[in-house]
Prior knowledge:
The complex is a heterotrimer.
Chain A: H1 10-32, H2 38-58, E1 64-66, E2 71-73, H3 75-94, H4 101-104, H5 107-124, H6 129-147, H7 154-185, H8 190-193, H9 201-222, H10 231-237, H11 240-268, H12 273-293, H13 298-319, H14 322-349, H15 366-369, H16 371-385, H17 391-405, H18 409-434, H19 449-467, H20 470-476
Antiparallel strand pairs in A: 1-2
Helix pairs in contact in A: 1-2, 1-5, 2-3, 2-5, 3-5, 3-11, 3-14, 3-19, 5-6, 5-11, 6-7, 7-9, 7-10, 9-11, 10-13, 11-13, 11-14, 12-13, 12-18, 13-14, 13-17, 13-18, 14-16, 14-17, 14-19, 16-18, 16-19, 17-18, 17-19
Chain B: H1 5-29, H2 36-39, H3 59-75, H4 77-88, H5 93-114
Helix pairs in contact in B: 4-5
Chain C: H1 9-30, H2 34-54, H3 58-83, H4 95-126, H5 138-144, H6 149-170
Amino acid sequence: MTFTQPTIDLTAVSPLLALLATAIFLLLLPLFFRSAGRALLAFVAVIGLLISGVCLFRIPVVPISGFDRLLLLDPLAIAVHGALLLAALLTLLISLNRVEDEYLNYGEYFSLLLFSLIGMMIVTSTWNLLVLFLGLELFSIALYTLAGIRKMRADSVEASLKYLLLGAFASGFLLYGMALLYGASGTLQLNEMMLGIEADASTLALIYAGVILLFIGLAFKAALVPFHMWTPDVYEGSATPVSAFMSTATKAAAFIVLIRLLAHSELAIRFPWPQLLIVLAVLTMTVGNLLAIHQKNVKRMLAYSSISHAGYLLVGLTAASSSGDQAVLFYLFVYTAMNIGAFGVLSHMGVSNADERVDFESYRGMGYRSPFAALCLAVFMFSLSGLPPFSGFIGKLYLFSAAVEKGYVALVVIAVLNSVASVYYYMRLVVNLYMRDPAEELSLPRANAGLKAALFIALLLTVLWGIYPSLLTDLLAGISRPLP
Amino acid sequence: MPLEIIPILALLLVVLGVVGAIYLLTYLLGPRRPGDVKLSPYESGKEPIGDARIRFPIRFYLIAMLFVLFDIELVFFYPWAVVYRKLLSAGSFILIEMVIFIALLLIGYVYAWKRGALQWD
Amino acid sequence: MPAFEGINMSWFFFILFAALAVGSAIAMISQKNPVYSAVFLIITFFAVAGCYYLLQAPFLSIVQIIVYAGAIMVLFLFVIMLLNLRKEIRLPLHGPWQVAFAALFAAILLLQLVMFILAAVPTFHSAPGHGALSGGGEPLGLLLFTKYIYPFEIASLVLLVAIIGAVVLGRKKLPKEF
């Protein structure tokens, strides 16, 4: 057997290396310097994110690959890396909130957050099934741990356990799918295996089964509707910043892999993908919204709302076009800003770890007590429900028009109806903020600088991208099908 | 079937045969005079106290988890050792990549150590 | 299935190990005593290792024994001891329709599996790429340390994160108190 020296492209991995170095530093620093506090750790983490962002920015726009095509940075990957870095930045900043310090006051939290970010970046920038699986396990294991980091709370441990069990189950599906695809095609490169297969019945049977199993595994991670059961309990039990990160970044990573999987399997196998995606999109939107309406707990409401947003993203995926992919990316950016912002306000409302105050009643009259946070929450709710002029509206417009372009009018009608229905539960919260008197004397702690910064950035982006969407669409213009 | 499996199979058969024979012989030849002391569980000469199935402390679990992880790490060393000489002729990357691999796991080890995961309190 | 030439020794042993694996797996799930289940699981692992060996993947077979029959089983036994499981707790079924549905879906899945295997089996013969795991780990090493160096290093990251996760969740006290 012949062998060659491995090809190592340091430019391609420089964003990952910057994050890795930061994560290890954050892990070890508190062990040797006990006085290293949360502010210092978060500061180091933010610096690491910024360096990684700069490295990402320096990567040329043409698709580059490293490690013998195991790593591929195409415009899709670079764009989603940007969204992931934004999600991590906002999450870090809201983790600085005073309430969270009971359990986040040590290096593991920040380190694991960065490790999960690394995993997501690995997953989104490869066509190789082996790398895909390892990256997926990397971010999943980090998130299982983060979900259970509030060990004094039983529901946090329960969240961790549920996420672990169902996540391991999903990984099983993924692995079976990958094994079948490899058995049928003899290659691990997802973009090549669909092109080179022989179209005889037995190979197609393997490919069908493999692609479906892979799809199921990813649907678990993206919380699409028949595979969404874990979402509310996990988001409710996890610490608020962790839920914020899981609801946005995990979704982004899973959707990019779904795009990659569908982009090539659509070409090769005659499978009724559009029909399947339409059914899933309708189910995901409707079930998410219907269940969100009855929630009394704001965190659970946001969990169900995140399921319905996965449904809207599926509408863009159904279009299976360049504009559809761009719309999905646009929406992922927008959703990251507004959703982490909303979770940030939730974190602000908490009195302590034991008393998070996440029921709707707690928000009564908040508009007069804590005007800035209430204003932010109102804007995020408007944007999440898709009302103009906020970016949530523009994002949905792009998603739905990409689907209409391909003639999926009925699907878009259902999506718009869902969107209208969702206004009800988002506005219920806003009504509580401004139109009802506070039931009790609210003594909110002062928001700290990190939380304020996070809310400000999220608010700014939500408004700005709504008014000037070209700020974002220009960055995403390079994403096109067919993918390299 | 590859021929090199024959010694392994032979060993397997010999082991099974010897163990089976010992059990059979003690069953056939050994005298049976049961008594209270003889029927009690063997605990190195001590009087048995209670049930053997007690609840283990959770600390064992952490140790076992760490054992599994470092055991999996070990698996990567076998193919590395086999090809080390061959690949060294093509450049020192074979050494560097394993150094990086071990360094990352060493960080995990230092972390577990400093966090007291290996302490028995 | 490897392309064995007719009925010979390999074929015989492969069927033997495969039957042993399936049989002890069934025995494992039907046992009431969790320790017995664990013992049957060990037999399954060894039988699968035997299958790997006969599929010309001796390295994988050894790894199967070291990692699964060795390390993972230790973990299983620890969990059984930690939870002090004495007898099986029977969870109540949600009415007779649950059994009916479960049976129906199981039958559908079984049917699908059979149809699928009948349709797909010819492909496995020609599946390229096996051989990387053959021999004493050398072909694997040559691939892993040249072409697949990127996933190899990611694997060490996964292990590192798993160590952190085990320590964070496994320690009773919060790390702050150390």
